[in-house]
Design a protein that fits this description.
The complex is a heterodimer.
Chain A: E1 9-20, E2 23-34, E3 38-42, H1 49-56, E4 64-69, E5 72-73, H2 78-82, E6 85-88, H3 100-110, H4 115-128, H5 144-155, E7 162-166, H6 174-189, E8 193-198, H7 201-207, E9 210-215, E10 218-224, H8 225-232, E11 235-241, H9 247-258, E12 263-266, E13 269-274, H10 279-289, E14 294-300, H11 304-312
Parallel strand pairs in A: 3-8, 3-9, 6-7, 7-8
Antiparallel strand pairs in A: 1-2, 1-4, 4-5, 9-10, 11-13, 11-14, 12-13
Chain B: H1 22-42, H2 48-70, H3 73-104, H4 108-114, H5 121-129, H6 131-148, H7 155-183, H8 187-203, H9 216-224, H10 226-240, H11 245-271
Helix pairs in contact in B: 1-5, 2-3, 2-6, 3-6, 3-7, 3-8, 3-10, 6-7, 7-10, 7-11, 10-11
The chains are: A alpha/beta, B mainly alpha.
Chain lengths: 326, 273
């Protein structure tokens, strides 16, 4: 990818490293996020997503590499960077004992609004995020989705041009998740740049213009959503072979007909990327001709696990290590 | 949700500054103090220590030690009330550390750290709000003393001056506990380390007994103990309306504590992930 000049890049990270003890949580991450886009960082738990965001959001100092936000260095110009970003973490960063309004007013006052402005801004945001009825209640009584919405609202008080969202929909029910997606799309439509992390391929697919797949602290794939999906195969064909001794022959047929390498996650089931659904018929015919009987045929959309299997050769198991910050 | 998209000023066109001025620091600290006061109103149970301790300790210590030390309770009051005042208020400042630790463990501190605010504000605000607690403890101790028969010879003005001196000193000392609060793993360990420091400091002083009754080696410590100087300064004010060298020494000591521990605390706070 060509190196862009700072004004076009909201985030420009080069070789970011963060070490916790002997665990290289982030191990040389490069990220370039164009202004006005949604960028997805995809990876399992403990892959280094949150640590990367924490470094970009000035919450942690990198142990190596450098990063700039709209051209401002995250280490040397941390205070300037903080004026350009909004951060919504994995865990609601709002005050439990206070009400939604009080939380927003405090953040507004801290950002330099006067009392009247802070109150007005709080009312606007609560209205926008559908929290008006709950505005006066203490947060202890809020549901997970309401808390997440309030948290996002709190990140938008200063209308920051860059918003970090760390797993914005983890743990939300499908309806709330869709609302969150709409909100994120609206943010970008109004001119914001969004960098979000997720464990869900479909979330990255739905929202992001570009995706970086991160594994054990390293970026293992980067590109547009379409390019990435194409490399993994739009969907995968799963074949369960009745007789184990036919497996090798079956994989040979797959290679011949589909022109792709197949994987063998279990002794008798074969998965193969399916770029062109039309060719499946040819494959089935070819298998019948070679007298290879199938116990089961199914088509599956790629899961994060498969993306990982394809890109790294291992699954997307939880990579959280003991004592390491997530 | 409204569909009208608010146009956002692009990042490259924004005016930013990498420096936090004094005015912003003060304004941020005041907002954080206001937040602490809001939280206090929601959790009134945290006032138990500053209301019950002055009442209980004043009653207990005065009647236990009064006869033995000064012959009778009334003549012990001018000695014990300043002693208990300092002990109670300084001990209260320990809670600042444990509460700060509790507060910092919550997610909201992550947001404070990501905001373009003065780095010291979340700390200084909490510490500033806690002077309310010291004020309550101070007032209750003097009221208890008055009920039991203390008539300060220095007059009302010097009682107010003594109160301000004590509250200011407690605020300064609370930076030590804030430091422990920042570096400790949890609130319990803050309590542990702090008690270890506070117990000898408050008891190995002139707060409860005349110094000349103590063995020589202990006298040596008691005489250099800053708590003793603060107690003496409060006694001078309350009983004689006088400002002696103990007053200036206390102010100097308290100021030195802030100058040392405030930067240490802020640095530790900044480094903490």
């Amino acid at each position: 990818m060509q190196h862009l000049s700072p004004p076009e890049l909201a985030v420009d990270a080069q070789g970011l490293v963060k070490v916790f003890g002997d665990n290289r949580a982030v191990d040389g991450v490069d990220l370039q996020v164009k202004t006005g886009s949604i960028y997805g960082v995809l990876g399992p738990n403990g892959a280094g997503k949150t640590t990367t965001i924490n470094m970009l959001a000035t919450l942690m100092q990198p142990d190596g590499g450098r990063a700039t936000i709209f051209g401002h260095d995250v280490e040397k110009e941390a205070q300037a960077v903080r004026q350009l970003i909004g951060v919504t973490g994995q865990y609601a960063s709002v005050d439990e004992t206070l009400s939604a309004t009080e939380n927003l007013v405090i953040f507004g006052r801290l950002l330099g609004l006067n009392k009247a402005q802070a109150k007005q801004k709080a009312a606007e945001l609560l209205e926008e995020f559908g929290l008006v009825e709950a505005a006066k209640r203490p947060l202890a009584k809020f549901s997970g989705g309401m808390r997440r919405r309030l948290d996002l609202a709190a990140s938008l008080i200063a209308q920051p041009p860059l918003i970090f969202l760390d797993e914005p929909t983890t743990g939300l029910d499908p309806r709330t998740r869709n609302q969150m997606w709409q909100t994120i799309r609206r943010l970008v439509a109004s001119g914001s740049t969004v960098l979000l992390t997720t464990q869900y391929l479909d979330e990255a697919d739905q929202l992001a213009d570009r995706i970086a797949v991160i594994d054990r602290g390293k970026v293992v794939a980067e590109g547009t959503t379409d390019a990435l999906k194409a490399s993994v195969g739009l969907a995968s064909l799963q074949l369960k072979i009745t007789d184990q001794k036919d497996v090798a022959a079956a994989r040979h047929v797959i290679h011949k007909v589909l022109g792709v390498e197949s994987q063998l996650p279990e002794p008798t089931s074969i998965t193969a990327p399916m770029a062109d659904p039309e060719k499946v018929t040819d494959l089935l015919v070819a298998l019948r001709k070679d007298r290879i009987t199938l116990a089961e045929v199914s088509v599956q959309q790629p899961t994060l696990d498969e993306v990982f299997l394809t890109l790294t050769g291992h699954g997307a198991e939880d990579q959280t290590k003991q004592g390491a910050a997530k | 949700m409204s569909d009208a998209a608010i146009a956002i000023t692009p990042g490259a066109e924004r005016q930013t500054q990498n420096h936090t001025g004094l005015r912003q620091t003060i304004s941020n600290s005041l907002v954080m103090a206001w937040r602490a006061v809001l939280k206090m109103r929601r959790t009134p149970e945290q006032f138990f220590d500053v209301t019950l301790q002055p009442i209980l300790f004043t009653l207990m210590f005065t009647y236990i030690f009064g006869g033995a030390i000064s012959g009778d309770v009334k003549s012990y009051l001018p000695i014990i009330i300043p002693g208990i005042l300092v002990q109670t208020v300084i001990t209260t400042s320990l809670v600042t550390g444990t509460q700060l630790r509790d507060d910092m463990d919550k997610g909201v501190f992550n947001r404070f750290r990501s905001l373009p605010i003065a780095r010291i504000a979340p700390l200084s605000g909490a510490l500033l709000a806690d002077t309310i607690r010291y004020g309550i403890a101070t007032t209750l101790t003097f009221v208890m003393g008055y009920i039991m028969g203390l008539r300060p010879a220095g007059g009302f003005g010097s009682v107010v001056a003594a109160s301000i001196l004590t509250i200011f000193s407690a605020w300064c000392v609370s930076w030590i506990f804030a430091f422990f609060g920042v570096i400790a793993r949890n609130a319990q360990s803050v309590q542990g380390i702090s008690m270890l420091l506070l117990f000898p400091l408050t008891f190995l002083s002139n707060a409860f007994v005349p110094v000349d009754t103590l063995p020589g080696w202990m006298q040596a410590f008691v005489k250099v103990n800053p708590i003793s100087h603060l107690v003496s300064a409060v006694r001078d004010l309350v009983n004689h309306g006088a400002i002696g060298h103990d007053f200036w020494l206390s102010l100097l000591g308290a100021g030195a504590v802030v100058l040392l521990f405030a930067p240490l605390t802020v640095r530790a706070y900044m480094r903490k992930a």
